[in-house]
Amino acid sequence: MNQVEKLKEIIEGTDNIVFFGGAGVSTESGIPDFRSVDGLYNQKYDYPPETILSHTFYRRKPDEFFRFYKDKMLCLGAKPNAAHLKLARWEQEGKLKAVITQNIDGLHQAAGSKRVLELHGSVLRNYCERCGKFFDAEYMLHADGVPKCDECGGAVKPDVVLYEEGLNDKTLRDAISYIQKADVLIIGGTSLVVYPAAGLIDYYNGNKLILVNKTPTARDGAADLVVQGSIGEIFGAL
Known about the structure:
Radius of gyration: 18 Å
Shape: elongated
CATH class of one domain: Alpha Beta
Number of strands: 9
Structural class: alpha/beta
Order of helices and strands: HEHHHHHEHEEEHEHEEEH
Number of helices: 10
CATH superfamily of one domain: TPP-binding domain
Largest sheet: 6 strands, parallel
């Protein structure tokens, strides 16, 4: 029995899956990954992306922040791929309890997933820092320079977790709770190096830890099943 067949067997035998996903789930929808060879880190900017996407940089150089943000982070034409669609179907069938994601693109919701815990926020939500008015991603994309509130003139900040900012406590607690109660934990499209998100794996108590990724991860040795390859193709074959 090959790895995909083993995965299929595990999924057929449970109604309590939690999925934890990283950038690799989105790259197959054409959204660039930060750490891949052709990812965002090799683009031509005056500063590395880790610097640009920090809270300090956002405050000090908002023009440069938003130039990068609009250019590289707002991939509004992206569509869900086979992995997003399969996860949404499992939820509809009652097999999947939650999707926990490090991605900020909203593609899980676009695919039909209802219970999505966004550890790093979402580019689809933006708020005026002064009056709290909500703005969508299109508003941000088409704003001239630094987006400003059309009511009070305050700065509009994306609801994404920048470097130096903490994760949302409730989202983190909910993620831990789902992972602790999961029968099957599938981790896909992440190299498991970004903390605190990568540390969530340690809360899993079960014996069906599945890692799906194109390349080996730091935690392959701890997994009960490792499936290497494109997550879209693997999920599409299930």
